[in-house]
Amino acid sequence: MADIEPYESALDALPGAHPYPRTSRYHDAEIGVHRQADGTEVRYTKRRLLPPLDETGQDAAPHVVGAGERPDLLAQRYFGDPGQWWQIADANPVLDPRELTDEAGRVIVIPLADGFAQGDRRV
Prior knowledge:
Shape: elongated
Distance between the termini: 18 Å
Strand content: 15-25%
Order of helices and strands: HEEEHHE
Number of domains: 2
Number of helices: 3
Radius of gyration: 17 Å
């Protein structure tokens, strides 16, 4: 994962600066405001639509699932952050992220858009 400028990390720590941290899947989601009958405003995150899958495969690399692997462990291996499992889930057409690794031998794709961590690049 690319280094984040120090001031950007500091902004993420300020209450109200960003509703979600830069590494969250909801960081770029639109925030809506609902006004209740008494005038109270309630902020909410609007529906997050998945980006289209890259049909050419240029923005992803295949990974053969091994026994005992989990999406968070794969995110740690490829992105250096287990909380980025959602990037792998978004790149594969599954409803439940557990489907990604529930069957050893299954081939899934690992997105390359944000780059791999410097560690393991096995596929």
